[in-house]
Amino acid sequence: MFDNFIYYLKVILQGLPDTLSLGILGIISAGLLAVVLSCLLSLNSCVITKIIRTYIIIFTGSPLLVQLFLIYYGPSQFGDVLNKVPTFYEIISSPWFCAYLALTLNSAAYTTQIFYGALKSVPQGQWQACEALGMNKRQTLKIVMPYAIKRALSTYSNEVVFVVKGTALASMIPVMDIMGYSNQLNGDYYDFSIFVVAGLVYLLINGLLSTIMRIIEKKALTFEN
Amino acid sequence: MDGYILPLAQATSITLSLAFVSLIVGMIFAFIFTLLESAPFKPVAWLMSLFNLTIRALPELLIVVAIYTGLPLLLMSLDDGIAISLGFTSFTLQIDIANTKPDPFLCGVTALSLLYAVYASQTLRGAFKAISNGQKQAAQVLGLSKSRTFFRIIMPQMWRHALPGLSNQWLILLKDTALVSAIAIDDLMMQTKTIIARTNQPFLWYFIAMLIYLIISILSQKVITRIEKRSTYFEQPKSANSL
After folding, report:
1. What chain A residue is nearest to B218 in terms of C-alpha separation?
2. Class of domain B1-80+101-232 (CATH, top level)
3. Cβ <8 Å between A63 and B203
4. CB-closest option in B61, B201, B204 to A179
5. Could you tell me the residue ranges of all domains in chain B?
6. Which of A19, A33, A149, A172 could serve as A177's disulfide partner, Cβ 3.0–4.6 Å?
7. Of B65, B204, B217, the CB nearest to A195
8. Separation in Å, CA of A165 to nearest CA in chain B
9. Average pLDDT over chain A, rounded to an integer
10. β-strand partners of A45
11. What's chain A's Rg over C-alpha atoms?
12. What percent of chain A clears pLDDT 90, i.e. is strictly above it?
């Protein structure tokens, strides 16, 4: 029984690099994209706002799985055109990159909502103070944005866990992450304890991540407590 | 393309029914989880919060697949009989189950309602805490029994507090139904895959599937907004004219 456990763990841990790289890079790029998008949203330009809103509705209103399949299987339709730029085609058709792209776009949509909500809840006085000092919109955002992100951190840590959980979907397009290896093992042995092992690994990752997020949150908000 | 509209519509109805059944079952479970988590006997409450934390940290796909694998194994072992040894004596627990292969739909509902319940119980707990203790005391002073206080006074207010959170969860549940295509339920996602296997036009059909999911979520968002408006009608500030 215990030998099996160790064996499963050994196999499943081979998927750790893929899960971690997808998760961490996804979180970082989605966070950066969200900061940019919420800055753009706060410019109050009619066209930009409409485009970003549509993007948010599309990516928050449909399942991540559909987006993943659309990005992975979709471009092959335009193979004739895309084959003319082989290196580009190779990159965008690799499963890892597709999973990364889908995760980033999906998470950025949710994160933009979080950040923009926080940006809007910054007291009006701060905006006015910056305006009174003669700052333009870009300079004001530089001041207000860090403040808003600090406020949004507690909600954002939820989103971080969601991204890591979302990486499991990458196993549906053939990325061999933790879930991919456990599916493969399950095909060979049909044993429930495989999923217990995989669950423990995910628990560990998410536990660590939430702890890190909590420490960051504490550090970021020290001056307010 | 004409020939695929009917199967797609059928698959959409399966997705919707999956979501609705999971919502109802999940709601019942959510209430039970909330009660257990605020149980006066502390170990039960601790176990329940540990369970909640665990499920929330696990990927949804893992839970769906694990239940699909685990449920038949559990039924099979029950069918074969489990030996329970108590040291001085042992007996076998055996339940006769004629068909040890559970329906995928059942597995899907189990997984989705579990997921919904875990998240919704958090919202319900928050809503329960948001109602001041004075109301419970006032009801007791008026001679209402505990169950009456709960059903007549606490619960209607809880709904109002919990509604935004619960409706958010409903939208997530709707999107999570796509995951059950991994366990052979012929839902919208699975049907789309079948059609793509025949037509070899993945972009078009996944795009159509995305549109259907989008339409469903936007429509339910509209309905939810209406319900929310109605339930908080008397809380909204009256205009100056009506005063």
Report:
1. A61
2. mainly alpha
3. no
4. B61
5. 1-80+101-232
6. A19
7. B65
8. 4
9. 87
10. none
11. 21
12. 35
